[in-house]
Design a protein that fits this description.
The protein has one domain: Dimeric alpha+beta barrel (Alpha-Beta Plaits, 2-Layer Sandwich). Helix content is 36%, strand content 22%. It has four helices and five strands; from the N terminus they run βββααββαα. A three-stranded antiparallel β-sheet has the order 3-5-4. It is globular and about 35 Å long.
Amino acid sequence: MKQDREPSRGRRKLMLVPAQAVYYVVFFETRYDSLDDALAKAPDVIVRHRARANELHAQGSVLLAGAFLGQLSEKLTTMAVCATREAAEVFAKGDPFVLNDMVST
């Protein structure tokens, strides 16, 4: 059961989802050294990637998404946690990073 809470001070709405036994994770290693590197080289793709992740989150198929660096020697990675396998496949196949050959894994 989803419940939306009103955002406070410009924060996004919090979506509460019921616990489930299995979550599906989409994990991409990009071809960029950092988020700043990706923003400098492909800002329009980053904007589309974020907008799409936010849209899928609002629909409830993406529960959580974000970018991070594991180690300074590693490339920028992104991850999305999805409610179903189908949602994970939709996220991966239509992601602007994938469509624009910005991922290595």
